[in-house]
Amino acid sequence: MARNVLYPLYQLGNPQLRVFRTNFFIQLVRPGRTQPEDTVQFRIPLEMTRVDLRNYLERIYNVPVGAVRTRVQHGSNRKRDHRNVRLKKPDYKVAYVQLAHGQTFTFPDLFPEKKLSPEGGPADDNIRDELLEAQRHRASRDPRRGGVPAWFGL
What we know:
It is built from 2 helices and 6 strands. By secondary structure, the chain is of the alpha+beta class. Strand 4 (79-80) and strand 5 (86-87) form a beta hairpin.
């Protein structure tokens, strides 16, 4: 059963002066299983159709789309609150977009490996060692104070 989608009303005017903004937000999702290089997974609203997603990607982002497949993922219904009432997570739609022939997509590496310094260890180790040494120097007792604690000062 499809829900009624409210599209913007047509307004008179020169088409070059009108700007249409979408009412949908889509999320790029890292797939749980390995997929072909030309397939991209999105999480989209339940009201969005395949045609909407195809137009969204082609017109806004200039991404050539070959095919779009969708499925509805039902939310979990197992959790309960303090009154023992079931809590249901909301349903969402998952879209698999197959890019046009010859196009590939690799998910960006958001957390790259640390670069090695010329000595062979990570570059951050040198900075950390310097900071620890400075902290030890500050925490060491001053021999000129004669055993008086640092918090008791003038």
